[in-house]
């Protein structure tokens, strides 16, 4: 729910929520809250990722507020009020949002939570205790209809894209390739609603329609507006300046994480853009089901959180693309095979800190766009060898889309002299993505 909690001054949104059963006790409800002033600043400086905190932050004083939760009965009156514990200032970033956690005994919860039925919702009222909010927030938390266990091993999420309809073929290739290597479910966020015809309920796109039919694709439309007027204005301004969604990502990634938790996925991957393709140089894991095999038999079997490095590619190198497969242009990974040297990342994993985070959902406290935060500091976040698994980033992938196609990178990112190594390691997938219909 998004409401003006202080008329004319503050808006608040509970943008994500998840309820967990505490065996033999009750239910723990986790609520993620974003509180903001109503208007965005008039002028914004270009920034990337966590550097945007001064402009994208939740209202500064929100980190010091106290909250309580009330379980509501059928008549809307509180059955029980309990204090909430708050969490903010995660890691080194003090301005993401506020998380409130409340615990309720089974005795005050609706019968459907105890008997396993699917009907109904858990009605919660969140009340601020320091006299700042003029009214509480009321929530209806519904049971998530989970897909079969074999379809919920890994969820992959992207940031909200603008002008998605202009990148239909790129989206097709991205979805088809990652399903081919063994990712189970795609959480697609839309910045302006333009992707609805591609991935929405009435999707005309054959690849998306098939994934939706199989229960493997979830689509969220115009996510920025759900965070209020200020966030929507910030998001639109950043797209005009840098062709990215810096502000919204730090909130959206946590919405996506909680959605993955509710849906029961084991692993969560925040790949961010459809210009990034996961790839491995390890022979025994290359080809179809590569990612699935790594989860079952590779390094993922002995860890809970990982960082996947990127490799930037942006130079056209002549490649033998068999046009008899299709009249379509080759996939971006078969077109831009000139890449930066792998030795750069091997020598210094921090030369590009825009990592792709991957974490087991049961161990995830929260997320940054480039880092997963485990619930316990003793749980290591491990850096994966760039040869074992990487996100191959094609910096010119969006050019074919025209307007909204350009992305603003560091000045040297598109310098062809940067891309001195040829990488055709993804070429095995061309025949699958461009094979004629059977």
What features would you describe in this structure?
This protein is of the alpha+beta class. It folds into two domains: 10-142, Immunoglobulin-like (Sandwich), CATH 2.60.40; 149-318 and 331-403 and 416-434, Spore Coat Polysaccharide Biosynthesis Protein SpsA, Chain A. It is 20% helix and 29% strand. It contains eleven helices and 23 strands. The protein has a seven-stranded mixed β-sheet with strand order 12-11-10-13-18-15-21. β19 and β20 form a beta hairpin. The radius of gyration is 22 Å and the shape is globular. The termini are far apart.
Radius of gyration: 22 Å
How many extended strands? 23
Largest sheet: 7 strands, mixed
Major sheet strand order:
12-11-10-13-18-15-21
How would you state the average pLDDT, rounded? 84
| Unreliable stretches | none
How large is the share of residues in beta strands? 25-35%
How many domain units?
2
Shape: globular
SS class: alpha+beta
Question: Which descriptors would you attach to this protein?
Answer:
438 residues, alpha+beta, Immunoglobulin-like, Spore Coat Polysaccharide Biosynthesis Protein SpsA, Chain A, 2 domains
Short description:
With 438 residues, the protein is an alpha+beta fold.
Write the layout of secondary structure elements.
Layout: E1 2-6, E2 10-22, E3 26-37, H1 53-56, E4 67-72, E5 78-83, E6 85-87, E7 98-105, H2 111-115, E8 121-128, E9 137-142, E10 154-158, H3 168-180, E11 185-189, H4 196-199, H5 206-213, E12 217-220, H6 229-242, H7 246-263, E13 267-272, E14 276-279, H8 290-297, E15 305-308, E16 310-315, H9 332-335, E17 338-339, H10 342-347, E18 356-360, E19 364-368, E20 371-374, E21 381-383, E22 390-394, E23 421-422, H11 430-433
Parallel strand pairs: 10-11, 10-13, 11-12, 15-21, 16-22
Antiparallel strand pairs: 1-2, 2-3, 3-7, 4-5, 4-8, 6-7, 8-9, 13-18, 14-22, 15-18, 16-17, 17-23, 19-20
């Amino acid at each position: 729910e998004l409401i003006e909690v202080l008329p004319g001054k503050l808006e608040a949104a509970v943008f994500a929520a998840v309820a967990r059963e505490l065996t033999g006790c009750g239910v723990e409800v986790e609520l993620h809250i974003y509180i903001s002033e109503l208007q965005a600043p008039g002028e914004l400086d270009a920034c990337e990722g966590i550097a945007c905190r001064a402009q994208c932050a939740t209202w500064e004083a929100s980190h010091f507020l106290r909250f309580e939760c009330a379980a509501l009965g059928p008549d809307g009156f509180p059955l029980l009020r309990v204090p909430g514990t708050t969490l903010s200032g995660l890691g080194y970033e003090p301005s993401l949002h506020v998380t409130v956690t409340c615990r309720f005994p089974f005795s005050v919860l609706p019968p459907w939570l105890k008997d396993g039925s699917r009907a109904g919702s858990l009605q919660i009222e969140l009340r601020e205790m320091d006299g700042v909010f003029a009214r509480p927030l009321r929530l209806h938390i519904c049971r998530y209809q989970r897909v079969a266990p074999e379809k919920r091993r890994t969820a992959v999420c992207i940031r909200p894209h603008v002008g998605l309809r202009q990148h239909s073929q790129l989206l097709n290739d991205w979805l088809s390739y990652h399903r081919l290597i063994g990712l189970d479910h795609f959480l697609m966020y839309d910045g302006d609603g333009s992707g609805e015809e591609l991935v929405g309920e009435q999707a005309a796109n054959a690849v998306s329609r098939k994934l939706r039919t199989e229960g493997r694709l979830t689509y969220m439309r115009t996510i920025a507006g759900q965070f209020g007027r200020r966030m929507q204005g910030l998001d639109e301004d950043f797209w005009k300046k840098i062709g990215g969604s810096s502000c919204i990502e730090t909130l959206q990634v946590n919405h996506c994480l909680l959605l993955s938790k509710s849906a029961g996925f084991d692993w969560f991957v925040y790949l961010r853009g459809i210009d990034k393709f996961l790839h491995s140089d390890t022979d025994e894991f290359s080809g179809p089901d590569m990612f699935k095999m790594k989860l079952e038999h590779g390094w993922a079997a002995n860890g809970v959180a990982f960082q996947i490095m990127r490799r930037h590619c942006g130079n056209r190198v002549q490649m033998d693309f068999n046009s008899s497969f299709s009249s379509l242009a080759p996939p971006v990974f078969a077109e831009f095979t000139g890449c930066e040297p792998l030795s750069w990342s091997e020598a210094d994993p921090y030369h590009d800190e825009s990592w792709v985070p991957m974490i087991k959902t049961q161990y995830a406290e929260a997320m940054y766009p480039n880092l997963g935060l485990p619930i316990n500091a003793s749980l290591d976040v491990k850096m994966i060898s760039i040869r074992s698994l990487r996100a191959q980033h094609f910096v010119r992938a969006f050019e074919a889309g025209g307007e909204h196609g350009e992305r603003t990178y560091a000045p040297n990112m598109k310098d062809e002299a940067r891309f001195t190594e040829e990488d055709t390691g993804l070429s095995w997938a061309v025949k699958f993505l461009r094979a004629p219909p059977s």
